[in-house]
Predict the structure.
Amino acid sequence: TTLALSTYSSRNRQSYGEDKVSFAVSDQEYQLLTKSEDSSFPVVNVSLNEQSINLKAPHPFFYQTVQVGFERVFNEERDSQGIELVKEYYDENGKQLTTVKQGQEVTVKLKVRVTGSDRVNSVAVVDLQPGGFELVRSSVNRQFSAWDSEYIDVREDRLVIYGDFDQGITELTYKVKATASGQFVMPPVFAEAMYDPKTYGYSAAGSLTVTPSE
């Protein structure tokens, strides 16, 4: 997409001229910022408090909006539109946990269930970790039991898994370590078929207690 937009811009520069796009936000007028190290395109930063944005330009143009951050209020009820998700924590003896000790490594069991009659292809599963927990990277690999992922992206605060899921339940397991004590929100796990946005699901938010180490 980046190459296509760059080529389109180069070929039509003589017809349209230089980019002169302005963003009218509320009562303020923001000129398009120049290219930055983080972006190949000109950008403008707009507050989330703004209710509307008016874009003006003397010629056709492409634009993209990007929002980053975390939900302030999580839904305590799960939703399933073709995909069901359940996330649970277990100790080394296979006992399900609601309380963890600081410094303890626990096993995460993430169950993905396709509720329809067909296989769901190209699914992205985003597993945001609670605060005070870190992924044990050595426990994450492309093969989860008998299921193979297409790609795994291990980040500081989340695990993103891409792959195809057959009808029924697929169980994905890995380990996390509790690094801080306190009461933590367990964010919902979200999954969506990348080429079929109507097929998605997210688990219910929960809470997890980490007791201080001795």
